[in-house]
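Response regulator, Falsiroseomonas algicola. Tokens?
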Amino acid sequence: MPSEFARLTILVVDDDPTMRSVITSALRAAGCNQVRQASNGEQALNIVRQSHIDLITCDYQMAPVDGLTFVKRLRELPEGANKPVVMLTANNRPEDAWAGRELKVSAWLVKPITPQAVIKRVAGVLGLNVGTTAMPEDVLTELADAYEKRLPAEIQTLESIAARLPARPEHFNATIQDLAKRLHVVKGQAGTLGYALLGSVAGEVHDVLQEADRLLHDDDSFRPDLIRLVESGFKVMRLIVDRNVRGSAGAVGAKVLADIAAFARPLHARIVAAADAAEVNERQRRNHQSDVLLAAEQQRLIVERRIRLTQAEFGEKAR
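Tokens:
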């Protein structure tokens, strides 16, 4: 790897410790020994205030504030106004990219990621020559082995949370939000650490649940289909983990993913259409309220003006 990495100090910001470790391992394998880590935006801002940082990698979907909010606050600091930022995302939505341009995000990296992709993107932003040196194959071996060991427990946790959907309908919306956040993590980790099929299935379910959160506060008609999607998706994820299916599983994996997508994607499209329509209706309602208030205010001003004119007229007659 190029010697230029040895002189860099890079800050890795992510609320997922596994992804922080993935990126840190890749950077260190490339020769970058000065890697700082932060689990949230506030920690990262404090590090930027106190230390020299050459570049920041940042996850888009963090808590308590997301990646773009963090970058907005970063740009308000003298030390961070022009700091290069590589944003990692599992969504790859055009609207996020446009918002990133406004905040001078240097580059985006879509999950799942590889160590090679991390190094190539960082080098590209900083104008470094990565050469042709290959990344060591065992960079993520330890992380992948640890991930394999904890996967059964993580799937069991997801199944336990999903069981609340039909059992506790009063908490349906909160449960959907919880599952979406957890599936976002699985989507990023699984593909990065060798479980591409698991990550893809988690991604199909995640994308629907994330979009459904826009709508469920006002429309519960999608609840049965959402429960069906979660149950079928989690059944497939359980089989993948129980059989320790790594990679994409070839033609069989493609068929499994196609079956999930055949239900998930039309459902996603219907939810998007309904949510967009609900937002349009809400804007129209607010505009109508504004028009009514404006008309009432105009009428009030007219009445007040007539009263003043009448008072002035009586005053003239009295004199």
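The chain has two domains: 3-126, 141-268.
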